[in-house]
Amino acid sequence: RAIGEAAEVPSAQVEAAIAAFIPAIRGALARSPIHGMVTVSGYEGSELLVARLLIESGATVPYVGTACPRTPWSEPDRVWLEAHGCEVQYRASLEQDLAAVDRHRPQLAIGTTPLVQACKQRGLPALYFTNLISARPLMGPAGAGSLAQVINGAIANQARFDTMRDFFGDTGAGDKAGIWSDTPVLRPEFRADTRRQVIKIMKRRKAEEML
């Protein structure tokens, strides 16, 4: 209706379009439900729309972060999302998006490349927003059912992540990252010595700043 009013379309035509499309959209949502908790983040500008569609499809979305600023055009979606228990973060940073993932522990995280990489390291299914989500239709009956298959499929991959984590353990993590010709040997004494040196340097710098 808002679009029709803005475009000055006769109300009779607007109501006819609503009557034709609403049942089809509701039917598509009913046929393609999404069950699970999902966090959303990205920089495309459609993050709030995606989060709203996920909730309307049955998913729980506790957080959506967007690199875009708050504008009057996204205000109706912000109000709707917050009314449904979703935190909306404008100008979101990677740190804020990761903090939301750690805070909510969703079954799926949708986001940027570094966020997806961090989530997969945690053994959490994740999807790239740009090429797997934003490229799909969001409006009308086509949009209503476009996300269910990829979202539900990704959530169902949790068992694969668990199997990989059980198999690899902490291989390639922390001090064991990189390519080694032999098993890495930890040197806690070197680390302790370096830490003491760093503390001394920081104290000296702080003392110099006070002069």
TrEMBL record:
UniProt keyword list: Chlorophyll biosynthesis, Oxidoreductase, Photosynthesis
Superkingdom per UniProt: Eukaryota
Biological process, per Gene Ontology: light-independent chlorophyll biosynthetic process; photosynthesis
InterPro entries with a match to the protein in the record: LIPOR_BchN/ChlN, Nase/OxRdtase_comp1
Example of a GO MF term: oxidoreductase activity
Domain Nitrogenase/oxidoreductase component: 3-155
Cross-referenced PANTHER family: LIGHT-INDEPENDENT PROTOCHLOROPHYLLIDE REDUCTASE SUBUNIT N
Name the UniProt record assigns to this protein: Nitrogenase/oxidoreductase component 1 domain-containing protein
Lineage: Eukaryota, Cryptophyceae, Cryptomonadales, Hemiselmidaceae, Hemiselmis
